[in-house]
Design goal:
This protein is an alpha+beta fold. The protein has a domain at about 65-75 and about 85-225: Beta Barrel (Porin). Helices cover about 15% and strands about 55% of the residues. The chain has one helix and twelve strands. Strand 10 (about 200) and strand 11 form a beta hairpin.
Length: about 220
């Protein structure tokens, strides 16, 4: 009987030791899991925007652009003969709002409306309001974007009490830096042609035909959406 009691006591001690070891191992595993970061922890993620993105545009991408800058009246013709322009100072100002729709990574179509003004020697002001469609091709080199475009449309013009509703054409190029996925900033230069073919009593007067060539230089902010 005494041997049986001793045996039962030894078995009880072994069982208790095994349970204690198992509990100790579970506590150690739990402490290690708490020390090691899990999937729920906030892990810094490096954005793809920090690297090179070879394809920034796809069909349906759009931009809205605002531009401000200067104009430089250059070459003027009257009835085919070159004449001096009469602006003082020979520099004016301009502003433009533009919308662009991309058909792919490079080709785009858009519209623009702007205003140009310059002072004359008589301290009066000439206003031009070009409204037209624009199309072109854009090169993408890393974060730099270089659109080349041509525009055409109508151009209401005003000087004192005289008004003229004419036509214009424009060609230009820009270079933008893609500051973020939503914004890019750049510099533009363009050449514009404004022909005037006035009429009197419904008849053309070739002697009064005018043709103005104007160079523009602007800075732009472009919003991408």
């Amino acid at each position: 009987m005494q041997k049986a009691r001793i045996l039962m006591l030894l078995l009880g001690l072994c069982w208790f030791s095994g349970q204690s070891a198992q509990l100790l191992a579970q506590d150690q595993e739990q402490e290690q899991e708490e020390e090691e970061p899990g999937y729920d922890e906030d892990i810094p993620i490096e954005s793809d925007w920090d690297g090179y993105m070879p394809e920034l545009y796809s069909r349906g991408d759009q931009t809205f652009t605002i531009s401000l800058g200067l104009i430089f009246p250059s070459v003027f013709y009257n009835n085919g003969k070159r004449i001096p322009h009469h602006f003082d100072p020979p520099v004016g100002g301009m502003g433009t709002l533009g919308y662009t729709y991309f058909f792919g990574a490079h080709y785009f179509l858009g519209a623009e409306v702007g205003i140009k003004f310059n002072y004359t020697l008589g301290q009066n002001t000439v206003f031009l309001i070009p409204i037209g469609l624009r199309t072109g091709y854009q090169f993408v080199i890393g974060r730099f974007e270089i659109p080349l475009s041509v525009s055409a449309g109508i151009a209401p013009q005003r000087y004192l009490n005289y008004g003229y509703f004419g036509f214009f054409m424009k060609g230009g190029g820009s270079i933008f830096y893609r500051f973020s996925p939503e914004w890019s900033f750049g510099l533009n230069t363009d050449w514009s042609w404004y022909p005037q073919r006035p009429k009197e009593n419904g008849n053309r007067v070739p002697g009064k035909d005018m043709s103005a060539n104007i160079i523009g230089l602007t800075v732009s902010a472009r919003y991408h959406f």
